[in-house]
Amino acid sequence: MFSKSEKIVRKTKKYCIKTTYAYPLTIKSGKGCYIQDHVGEWYLDFNTNVSSCNIGYFHPEIQEILGKYSKLGAHKIAGQDFYTEEQADLAEKLVKITPKELEKVFLINSGAEAVENAIKFAFRKKGPIPGVGCYRGFHGRTLGALTFTNSKAVQKKNFPEISHNSIQFCTSDDDPNIGQFEDLIDREGPPAFVLVECVQGEGGYRPASKKFIKTIRKVSKKYDFPLIIDEIQSGLGRTGKLWSFEHYGVNPDIIASAKSLQVGATITSKKYDPDEEGAVSSTWGGGHRIDMAVGLKTIEIIEKENLVENSAKMGKYTMKRLDEIKENYPEHIIDVRGLGLMIGVEFKDKRKRDFVVNECFKNGLLVLGCGFKTIRFAPPLIITPKEIDKGLEIFESAVKVS
What we know:
CATH class of the largest domain: Alpha Beta
Largest sheet: 5 strands, mixed
Number of strands: 17
Order of helices and strands: HEEEHHHEHEHEHEEEHEEEHHEEHEEEH
CATH superfamily of the largest domain: Type I PLP-dependent aspartate aminotransferase-like (Major domain)
Strand content: 15-25%
Helix content: 25-40%
Strand order of the largest sheet: 4-12-11-10-7
């Protein structure tokens, strides 16, 4: 006799294309920082559905939004063909919380699509010349975004790419590759754009060096092409700032946002606005009215409950505790790094990392791998010291027996 969770897993394996399930969790519900499965077990969530649920679960103001829209008979409409209050309000809010140069928003369904449209905006103005991305970057699975994804070989095998170049992602100010970008331009000419994460997500939760990001910004201004910053995982308070680029003292020309926003968004300066009817569009752009309303309410909750500040404070607390664990188990853990509540713990090898991920799951803690041998720590921004202590106690026990 199979449990409800086992039946769901078996049916999924039978009918769905194989993807990246980390462990046999079947999500039924959630509350606060916890997820419940279909057999009633509760798990402390330290991955937040890959930073998609930054305010946690069952927030009363979100439940109120869902109740409101359950009474409407047209919750999903062709968002780029008909006007909706939800789209106008969310776009207005995004303009207000991004640098003043960014004045236009295109709402779409996912992070990959946000990146696709960011690079399309750049190509529209600069022409079909190669763009530049970073090694170990991750920007999505659609073919344009996938071109600039360099996280894992399996993600790209046999898929075509558009013309592009790649540079090393520098994590320290003394990295000799920091000057590589202008060397590339000397050889190849100015690109259509440069696309970068300030903290690489799938690439291993690796914060860029400040000198690296500032150099990219300086070079892009010198040669007059746009800097596109991917804030899909790192945005909306995850790093202890509302946007990760705020740590680096730069302003991008275009931002790609999604995940915690509930929809995809490409936010651009007027300079890179295509400003031509039909140049970009989408039937279900923005997902639907419920997603857009929840996205706006998520931003309002982050502001009202000071969750950016909590992310910074709890991030420091978590890093301190993880550094202590690293000192206790140097034979297993080789690095702890991150910004705010976007923290990576790197193991000596992938086998140990994978063992710890599964051992944590067996004992009620949800964590996910990233990079080659790193575990990401990205709990909801509402997390408390008590919950952090509980999660890290489970994590340390798993490390101890690995």
